[in-house]
Structures are given as C-alpha cells and as structure tokens.
Amino acid sequence: MVAQDPYAVTDMSELPESAFSPREYRRGDLVTGEIVRIDDEGMVISAGLKTEGIVPPQEMRTLTDERREQMVQGARVMVIHLNNRGPGGMAVFSYDQAQEKQVWEDLIDLHQKIRNYPPKLCSTTKAVWS
User: Fold this and answer.
1) Is residue 53 in a domain?
2) 3-state secondary structure of 90
C-alpha cells in the first residue's frame, strides 16, 4: 500500500516514485511544509524534496506573538505559493494569504451547515411602526 502523507511514512519504500522528484508549485497553490527557520528576515519552509521557500516578513503580518512562539523548527505550517523566484532561487510563500484562505473556507463551511438547518420559530413578535 502507498502512503499518501509523506510526513506519516515510516518506511521509504512506502513512498510513490513521484515523492522523489522536486515538486513544481503554481501561484496560489496551498502548500503544507515544515519550518526550517524563523527570524526577523522571515520564515524558511521546506515544502518537500529539494523544495525550500521563504515567507518574507511582509507576508506574515497576521502572525501573532503567541502563534509565533509556536512556530519552531520542524512545526508544520500552511502557506500559499506566490512566486518561484525569491532570494537564492527559493520559492516565495505567504502565511497571511493562507490564513485568509482558511478563514474563507471556514466561513463557507459554516454557511453550508447553517443552510442545511431550517430556522425554527420559537416565538412570535409584533412590530409596531409609527
């Protein structure tokens, strides 16, 4: 059986052949990667075999101090791919846009759940307009 999540693999033989070649990302792709480093210059992300990228400081403005403390080497983080030509040939990612996308997806899910439940009339009120 072939494992789908490369982070869950305990035996390299479980990985498909495609896992051994660098991944090509397109603008707007949602990427889950591991933090290699985070400092004042940004966050370096390992996004798969031979693929590293950077989240510049201007793309992680929504990162709170509390959340930043949780961002340690090896932690997984979701980012959006912006560009393939960053500093040192690294890809450029955005933490802020990934958070925005997640909020929208959560709102859409919530809206769908609400639509599936018809409103229940609990009481009636009488409005008087003057």
Assistant:
1) yes
2) coil
| Residue 45 resides in a domain | yes
Q: Contact 76/110 with Cβ under 8 angstroms? A: no
Query: What pLDDT, in 10s, does the model give residues 3-55?
Result: 445 556 566 666 666 555 556 778 888 889 999 999 888 999 988 767 789 99
Determine which helix (DSSP H) or strand (DSSP E) holds 15, and give its type and residue range: none
Q: Which of 20, 1, 90 is nearest to 51 (CA)?
A: 90
Phi-psi region of 42 (alpha: psi -120 to 50; beta: other; left: phi over 0): left
Q: What is the dihedral of CA 108, 111, 115, 116, to 10 degrees?
A: 70
Pairing between strand 52-55 and 91-94?
Answer: parallel
Is there a domain that residue 35 lies in? Answer: yes
pTM more than 0.90: no
Residue 63 lies in a domain: yes
The domain tally of the chain equals 1
